[in-house]
């Protein structure tokens, strides 16, 4: 079944806004990047994921997962689709920047921690 990705994004918009730290990814900026196609979407009737393709100075290409909302089974199926898409696009890695719980959920799909980001709030 073909899914209208923009309509799916609109259905999950409040969820996307709630899970992103607005200091880093203001929802208006995300909306614009989605509309322009810089943040790509994959969706089904129950979930949506957003990702971008990053090109690094050393030549590496990365599929960078930005958000996922909806039913877990659907999210995991969409992640699998996105990983296959990344391979077809010549990406070297797929990454997901998220909460620590995702490391456990995605371990069975071959994802493993690569770096640790340590943050101190300053204000």
In short:
This protein has 123 residues and is an alpha+beta fold. It is built from five helices and four strands; from the N terminus they run αααβββαβα. Strand 2 and strand 3 form a beta hairpin.
Would you mind describing this structure in some detail?
This protein has 123 residues and is α+β, with helices and mostly antiparallel strands. It has one domain (5-109): Aminopeptidase. It is built from five helices and four strands, in the order H-H-H-E-E-E-H-E-H. The protein has helices spanning 5-11, 13-19, 27-36, 72-88, 101-106, and strands at 40-43, 47-55, 61-70, 93-96. A hairpin with a 5-residue loop joins strand 2 and strand 3 (61-70). The mean pLDDT is 93.
């Amino acid at each position: 079944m073909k899914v209208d990705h923009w309509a799916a994004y609109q259905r999950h918009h409040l969820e996307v806004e709630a899970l992103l730290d607005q200091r880093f990814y203001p929802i208006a900026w995300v909306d614009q990047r989605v509309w322009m196609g810089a943040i790509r979407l994959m969706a089904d009737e129950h979930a949506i994921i957003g990702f971008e393709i990053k090109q690094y100075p050393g030549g590496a290409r990365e599929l960078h997962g930005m958000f996922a909302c909806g039913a877990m089974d659907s999210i995991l199926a969409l992640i699998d689709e996105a990983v296959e898409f990344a391979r077809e696009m010549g990406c070297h890695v797929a990454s997901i920047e998220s909460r620590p719980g995702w490391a456990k959920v995605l371990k069975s799909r071959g994802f493993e921690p690569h770096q640790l980001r340590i943050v101190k709030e300053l204000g």
